[in-house]
Amino acid sequence: MSIAVAYLREKKLSTCLNVLLLGLGVGTIIALLLLLAQAEQRMERDASGIDLVIGAKGSPMQLVLSSIFQVDIPTGNVPIAEAAMIIAEPVVKRAIPLALGDSHKGFRIVGTNPAYLDLYAGKLSSGRMWARPLEAVLGADVARATGLSLGATFAGTHGFTEGGGTEHGTSPYVVVGVLQPSDSVMDRLILTSVESVWQLHEHMDHDKAATEHEHEHEKGKEITAYLIQYATPLAAVSFPRLVNASSSMQAASPAMESARLFQLVGVGVTALKGFAVIMMLCAALGIFVGLMNALDERRADLALLRVLGAPPAVVVLSTLLQGAVLGVLGVILGLALGHAGAEWVGQTYAASQRVAIGGRVWVQQEWWIVGGALGLALSASLIPAWRAYREATPELLATR
Amino acid sequence: MTSLVTTTGVTCRYASASASVPPIALPDLHIDAGQHTLLLGPSGSGKTTLINCIAGLQSTLSGSVVVDGVDLTKLSARHKDRLRGSRIGMVMQRLHLISAMTVRANLQLTQRLIGAVVNDELIENLARQLGIHDKLDQYPRQLSQGEAQRAAIARALVNQPALLLADEPTSALDDANCEAAVGLLLDYARLCKATLIVATHDARIKARFDRVVQLGAR
User: Fold this and answer.
1) How confident is the model over B137-184, as pLDDT tens digits?
2) Exposed end of chain B (fewer CB within 10 Å): N or C?
C-alpha cells in the first residue's frame, strides 16, 4: 500500500486529474439518480389514492401537474353544475374538489374540502379545520417559511408567482390551523374552502380596478378540477371515456401522465447519464494510460521489490492498489459532488417551485454506481498489473 | 568451516545477449560461511554476472549455484525471491532506490517486504553509522551519488542478512567515504558472522578482505 500511495503522490497532477474525471462522472450519475428517485417517490406519494383527475380540456399532463403536484398552471375552470353530474356517477367513490388561482408568497391557496387531508393522512398540529369562508389551514412548510401562526391574517395574490399578481387585500384570510408535516405536496399548500375562493373572486368581479390578466374564476361558481377515486377498478375503462365524450371536461390519469412525463424527461436523463458514463470511461482510460506509462518508468522499481524478497503478488497488488486508490478517491469525490449537486438543485428548485428534493438521502442504486466505478478503476489496472507481473522480474535488474 | 556459497561449472549468457552469442563460463567458487571475499577484476571480467548468479538474478545454462545449502538453479522464482529476501542483502551497481519514497521509507519497505516488523531504531543506527542520518527523510533525487550509495548499503543491511553481496559499492565514493562504507560492510559482517562478497575493480579496498579472487579480462 505504501508504495502505491507513494507512486500516486509522486504523480500528483495525473492522480488529481484522474480522480477529478472519475469523480465528475460518478457525481453526475449520482445527482441524476438522487433527483429522479426523489421526484419519482414524491410523485408516487402525491398521486397515491387518486385514480383520475377531471378538469377543463387542454393538456392532460398540465391538468395532472397543476392539480396533483401543484407545479403548473391549471388548464382552466369548469362549471360546477356540469362537474356535479359527472361525479354523481356510481363508479365514483370520492371526488375532491379543487379551486385554484391564488397564492401567498408563492405558496398556492387551494380551495377544497376536508377529504383532501385524508389523501395525505394530514393531521393538525395546532388549531382547527376551516369552518367558514376565508379561514385557512397552512401546510407545515408554509407555516415555517412564512412565519404565519394561528390568528394571523394574510392576503391572497392572484396567480401563482410570488409578487406577480393583484392582491386581494380587502378580504384577508385568517389562519385557523397548521398541519403536521406529511411529506407530501400538502406541506407546501394553503388549504381553505372552495367557498373562500368563490367569495374572493365574486368580489373581484365587482372590482373594476382589478387585474387585466385573465382570471379563471371570473365566471363565478366554477371549479378547477376534481380528484377522483373509483369505486371499482373497472371504472378505469369506462369512466374516462364518459368524461371525455359527454362533457366539456377532460379526464387525465395520474399514473399515465406521470409515466409519460418520465418518458419525456427520460430522453434528457439518458443523454446526461450517457455523458457521465463516457466521463467515467475516460477516467478509466486515464488510469490505464497513467499506469501503463508509470509501468514503463517503474519497471525496475517493481523488479526491485522481487529482488528484495517480495512475492510476485506484491508487485501485482501494488499496481492494482494504485487503480483501487484512484477508484476510491474518485468515488468519494463523486459521492460528495453528486449529493452536493442534488442538494444545490433541490435548494434552487425549492426556492422557486417549493418542491422538496435534496442531497441528504441515499438511494439503493448508488451502491451499483460505487461498485461500477471501483470495478472500472480496478479493470483499468488489470493489464498494467499483468504486465508488471510478467515484466518486472528480478532478472530485469541483472541487465541494468 | 561450512560452505555458504558454492558455484560449480556455471555457464550463462548475459541477459542482454542473443542466443547466437556463446555462453560464458564462470569460475567455480567455494566461499565459507563468515568469509569476506573480494571479487576483483576489470570491467567485463564477469564480476557482476557472478554476483547476480549467486543472488539468483541471473539464469544459468548449466552448473549449480548453492547458497546456504540450497541449489538456486533448482528453485522456482518465488522461492528464490523468498530466499533472497530473508538471507541475502544486495548492493547493486545501479542503486535502484525507489524514487517516489524517502530513504527512510525505502528502508522500511525493505523490512516490510519480508514480513518483518519495521525497526526504526535499527534504521536510525544504520543511517548514523553511514553518515546519512540527516538524509533519512529526503528523496533519492535529493541525495548526492555517494549518499545514495550509502543509502543502498543501509538497505542491504537492514534485514540483517546472512550473505551480503555488493557490486561496486565504492565506485562513487571518495577515499574517506570508501573507507567508511567498506568498514561498515566488514564490521556488520563480523558482528553478525555474515558472509560478505564484494565485486569491484577498486583496488583501494583489496587489503581489507580475507580472500581476493582475481577475475581476468575476457
Assistant:
1) 999 999 988 888 889 989 998 998 889 998 888 877 788 888 887 888
2) N
User: Minimal CA–CA distance to A23: which of A368, A380, A252, A334?
Assistant: A334
CB-based contact (8 Å) between A300 and chain B? yes
CA distances from B183 to B95, B154, B193 (A): 19, 13, 15
Contact B213, B197 (CB under 8 A): no
Q: How far apart are CA A317 and CA A288, in angstroms?
A: 15
Cell for A100? 385554484
Contact between chains at A3 and B109 (C-beta distance less than 8 A): yes
From A334's Cα to the closest Cα of chain B, the distance in A is 27
Which parts of A84-206 are beta strand (E)?
92-104, 107-112, 124-127, 135-138, 153-154, 157-158, 173-179, 189-193
The ipTM value here is 0.81
A8-12, A122-126, B12-16, B192-196: least confidently modelled range:
B12-16
pLDDT bucket at B17, cuts 50 / 70 / 90: low
Question: How does pLDDT run across A73-85, given as a tens digit for each residue?
Answer: 899 999 998 899 9
Q: Is some CB atom of chain B closer than 8 A to the CB atom of A5?
A: no
Tell me if A346 sits within 8 A of A389, measured CB to CB.
no
Residues on chain B touching A306 (C-beta within 8 angstroms): 77, 81
3-class SS at B34? coil
Of A9, A301, A314, Cβ closest to residue B113: A314
